[in-house]
Design goal:
heterodimer, A: alpha/beta, Peroxisomal Thiolase, Chain A, domain 1, nine-stranded mixed beta sheet, 15 helices, 11 strands, 18% strand, globular, B: five-stranded antiparallel beta sheet, three-stranded antiparallel beta sheet, 8 strands
């Protein structure tokens, strides 16, 4: 029973490379490893721990964990795992770190992620593909998660009679928050005209519905509450974490991940002992803006088919009742496949977000609506 | 040296189990595996039934009919070999027999609609391959056009 994990893990270190600075120098060749090492160093300094305190290593989007460990100088860790480069793994990795320290398999786990997508010329589409379905789809010119989310949103529009332009407030809100974030890549405000006049990528999705492609690294350090208590910064407790999935050959989910989100939602809020009203802000995995709508509905913040109308600025802006993606999200801050959203969640709970700080931010939720749905409740109290 | 060759359009890369499917396409048949144990149809081709895990199956000609679950219009050039076709639509088709497949729908953009009925036809794309594509099915359940 997952309530057994409550109060058993805390995030005590967070490190992010300066995304905006990195974006200004595109010609610098960087590897995912370099970026992950940089982020780890920052997270370690942030936590006040010594490298010798780290006895667990989780790598994500890192081709070879042994090489990563070599670069980090972590030779004899007791708990090691590596996750593929899909964004759903950020939530999964934290889930695994929580299990590791809660079970005693490790005391202090470092989670490291590096993404040199921009330097490497990543397009997140058109490639060789992994499964037979990919090769079948390619002959029709079908590729990229954006196109699949586009398909889901197309049907969502059809099913719930949604007008064109309904996603604009989500993109505009992300950008407005990024304006207040000195490390965000895109900081010029956008308005409805900018949004609507931008080109379609996979229609109905437009340019500003899409995540960025940029370089960066993120690292987190997770430990037990008693180790966390001695450290300089207030611990950010993982009150609860839960997952479900909608797995098939396609990214598309027939119900926009509603069943999976619902399953996670029920367990998560019960395990955490919090209600939706207690959540002070939401970090939602927004590789493409429609996923924010799927999360809001799937986790019961509004009725099915209504999120597009519900997610108005008076609700989701920093001044609203449920600020969303307070750092700027994937479309404006940085596309670190959920990792920077985790960092933002931690910083919001700690009260470190300056001009974009949500007041009295004692409970933050992270949601990833994707073929693996994960969600966590992070809080000032265990 | 500048290449004058046009970029190649993506072609199928079949595994042994896909061969019958592509042979069917060359004869205007959408052949799918039909499980002998539980009757489930499947696509893409695989050795075992995802429903009951049986290895017993037969290749059978399917109806070629289905509906569009949803669609997008691709504007970005992900495949240089298809650049001339931009923007093109891509649909997720629910075949009447149950399996789901990606394909293009041969119709104007303003005719594309979720749940529209479609029927398969085949387009020769190379010496070795014909590709299943779909077009709006004009007849209703009663067979009236």
């Amino acid at each position: 029973m997952t309530a057994a994990l409550r109060g058993k893990a805390a995030i005590v270190g967070v490190g992010t490379t300066p995304f905006a600075e990195l974006y200004k120098i595109p010609e610098n060749p960087r590897s995912a490893y370099d970026l992950a090492v940089d982020a780890f160093g920052r997270a370690l300094a942030d936590s006040g721990l010594e490298k010798s305190d780290i006895d667990g290593l989780l790598c994500a989007r890192i081709p070879a964990y042994a090489h990563m460990a070599d670069l980090l100088g972590l030779r004899h860790v007791n708990f090691v795992n590596s996750f593929d480069g899909s964004g759903r793994m950020s939530g999964v990795a934290l889930e695994v770190a929580v299990m590791a320290v809660a079970s005693g398999l490790a005391n202090t786990v470092a989670l490291v992620y590096g993404n040199n997508g921009r330097s490497a010329g990543a397009r997140y589409g058109g490639g060789e593909g992994v499964t037979p379905t990919d090769s079948y789809d390619a002959v029709y010119g079908m590729t990229s998660p954006g196109a699949y989310v586009g398909m889901m949103y197309q049907r969502y529009m059809h099913e719930f009679h949604v007008p064109d332009g309904a996603l604009a407030p989500l993109a505009i809100n992300n950008r407005a928050n990024a304006v207040l974030n000195p490390d965000a890549v895109m900081r010029s405000p956008i308005d409805i005209d900018t949004y609507m006049s931008a080109r379609f990528i996979a229609e109905p999705l437009r340019l500003f519905d899409y995540c960025l492609i940029n370089d960066g690294g993120v690292a987190l350090i997770v430990t037990t509450p008693d180790r966390a208590r001695d450290l300089a910064k207030p611990p950010v407790y993982v009150r609860a974490t839960a997952a479900s999935s909608d797995l098939s050959n396609f990214y598309t989910s027939p119900d926009y991940f509603y069943t999976a989100c619902n399953s996670v939602s029920r367990r998560l809020f019960t395990d955490a002992g919090v209600a939706r009203e207690d959540v002070r802000c939401l970090q939602v995995y927004d590789n493409f803006t429609p996923t924010i709508l799927f999360a809001l509905e799937g986790f019961g913040y509004c009725e099915r088919g209504q999120a597009w109308a519900w997610a108005a600025p008076e609700r989701i802006s920093l001044q609203g009742e449920l600020p969303v993606n307070t750092g700027g999200g994937h479309t404006s801050e940085s596309y670190m496949q959920g990792w920077a959203l985790h960092a933002e969640a931690v910083r919001q709970v700690r009260g470190e977000c300056g001009p974009r700080q949500v007041p009295d931010c004692d409970v933050v939720q992270y949601i990833c609506p994707s073929p693996i749905v994960t969600s966590h409740i992070l809080a000032t109290e265990p | 040296m500048i290449s004058n060759e046009r970029p190649q359009r993506p072609l199928p890369r079949p595994r042994p189990i896909d061969r019958e499917y592509w042979e069917g396409c060359l004869t205007d048949e959408l052949r799918l595996q039909h499980c002998g144990a539980c009757g489930t149809w499947r696509f893409p081709p695989e050795p075992l039934c995802p429903k009951c895990l049986s290895a017993d199956y037969r290749w059978e000609r399917s109806s070629g009919k289905g509906t569009v679950w949803s669609w997008i219009v691709m504007h970005r050039n992900y495949f240089p070999g298809l650049a001339d076709l931009l923007p093109y639509n891509v649909a997720l088709i629910r075949l009447d027999e149950g399996p789901t497949m990606i394909a293009n729908v041969d119709c104007p953009r303003d005719q594309l609609s979720c749940d529209m009925p479609v029927a398969v036809f085949f387009e020769r794309i190379s010496d070795d391959y014909a590709l299943p594509r779909f077009r709006p099915a004009t007849s209703d359940a009663m067979g009236n056009s």
